[in-house]
From TrEMBL:
It comes from Halomonas urumqiensis. InterPro entries: Peptidase_M18, Peptidase_M18_dom2. Its EC number is 3.4.11.-. The keyword Magnesium does not apply. This is M18 family aminopeptidase. Belongs to the peptidase M18 family. The keyword Heme does not apply. SUPFAM superfamilies: Aminopeptidase/glucanase lid domain, Zn-dependent exopeptidases. GO terms for cellular component: cytoplasm. GO terms for molecular function: aminopeptidase activity; metallopeptidase activity; zinc ion binding.
Amino acid sequence: MSQDALLERLLDFLRDSPTPWHATANMAARLEAAGFRRLDEREAWQLSHGERVFVTRNDSSIIAVQLPTGPLSALRMIGAHTDSPGLRLKPNAPQTSAGWLQLGVETYGGVLLSPWFDRDLGLAGRVHVRHADGRLEGVLLNVDQAVAIVPSLAIHLDREVNQGRAINAQTQMAPVLLQGGEGADLERLLKRWLSEQHGLSDIEILDFELGLHDTQPPARVGVEGELVASARLDNLLSCFMGLEALLASDGQQGALLVANDHEEVGSASACGAQGPFLGDVLRRLNAQLGEAGDEGFIRLIQSSRMISCDNAHALHPNFTDKHDAAHGPALNGGPVIKVNANQRYATNSATAAMFRDLCREAEVPVQTFVTRADMGCGSTIGPITATELGVPTLDVGAPQWAMHSIRETAGARDVDYLTRVLTAFFNRQQLV
């Protein structure tokens, strides 16, 4: 595949996916364009060998499946997540101070707060409305123009700011939206934007899930364009690469892509990795195309493999001491196997060996990350999925800088590298 074309598709996906609901909708649109059939969890499923299907839950999580042309005896599964840390509006968001309408926010996930100051912010998410005929509808909203900002305090009023200052998310992160505005103005603005984007009129806004997002578009950065800078690389980059791999696969093997919401807040939800979404889908697939019964399901799971794909911490040139000297992944150095003896990552030597062999097959370099022994380690959907299902799992990811910032950075070549390996995984005939 052309690396430039791949990166252009990535930039488009990142720009058009300011929330998990938008990311899921955009993935669903690409799947449908490629011939995947949408399933509804509320209906009976009729599945056929060789068919391609997908299903969503909460409009923010998605599972896409390439059913094998032969018996369903094993699945090659890739897992990612659609959510990213950020600022979400509180239900009663409008508040006023010093003549300005502001928005009350709460932090979502482990957001890095300082980069949110002085950014051009848009508003996006899901809004539920009631039409004049009483019908309820959920619609997506994406205000991609700069309508809000969280202004910094001038250094003259805080001389010690560069010596380190705690940020209070309750009192110091409320963005300004409208001068002289009042609480009712937010509802008026939402109705105006819904009218402009969806042609909706004569509606009542019942509820919403909205968040702020940076309106600066994704970009290639560096003299040679060797970097990709964007919001939400963690973890829309993995969603994108997993989707590209599935669409590029040969369609012969059983292949599955799951992108869960709520990873950044612990995954404990109906559509999160700790919830029943993936297990529900797998049981329905196995009931129709696999070996029936509990024993048949366990045999399917133990014959399958899961690659949990979530970005890794690249070696930062200004903070090299934050990495173990032997485990500092480089941008554009290839995908990273993530290891943690305390099971914060699900990798073991057997699953890592399989991935190293896939990298050899795809002619892609491979790296390893282990956190310093004197630092804590983050986690992913990998250990959660392995615990819930029992499927042999490993954790990998593309290396990146500035994880959980409003704008993150990854290597341009790594997008192609990891996509090639994931495609090889979907096409692999023997998993063990």
